[in-house]
Amino acid sequence: MVERSYLWQWDRTRYKTSWLCLRPSEADIQAAAIARLSYLGIPAAVVDAGAKKLRGRAIGALRRQGLGARDASALLRGETGILAGLVDIVGTIPPQVHRLAFPWGIPLYIECKAAEHLEPTLSGFRQVASPGKPTPDQLAFLDAMHGAGACVGVIWSCDDLREVLP
Q1: pLDDT at 22 over 90
Q2: Minimal CA–CA distance to 32: which of 112, 152, 137?
Q3: Residue 49 burial (CB count, 10 A)
């Protein structure tokens, strides 16, 4: 088991029940994180490595060119190593923001996941969707970037950025 010193596991106790009842999607988390980073003066962008709509059109185009569906899908899912593990948000924490002893920016890599979804019942709350989990490829990417000195983490809320940022 790899010892990780960054946020990477879901912990239900970190989140308010009322917020989980709002059922935030991964796209909601990404948008909120980008807005928070912008407010903090940290340039960052969402990297749509999944590109579901584009991937579907690209698989169709590759199949029309003679590539089998399985090979086209593997190529576009990153099984060739090109996109495997790439995270959702990439940015740089500028020196005026991190205020550390060195005058250069710090790379930032964030994977966003949908939080657990709850709904109220007469006896309390019940889970209607499990929280998202990072894939082994995403964790390997984050491990490598963290080992190289980047700020990394998996977030289920933009409030999780407090644990990711220096």
Answers
A1: yes
A2: 112
A3: 16
What is the C-alpha to C-alpha distance for residues 33 and 157, in angstroms, rounded to an integer?
8
The mean pLDDT of 128-154, rounded to a whole number, is 95
CB 120 within 8 A of CB 17: no
pLDDT above 90 (res 56): no
At 124, list the tokens: 């309390």
Report whether CATH 3.40.1350.10 matches the domain 12-49+85-164: yes
Q: Output the pLDDT for position 82.
A: 45
Q: Where are the domains of the chain?
A: 12-49+85-164, 50-83
pTM: 0.79
- Is 110 in a helix, a strand, or coil? strand
Q: d(Cα 34, Cα 7) in Å, to the nearest integer?
A: 18
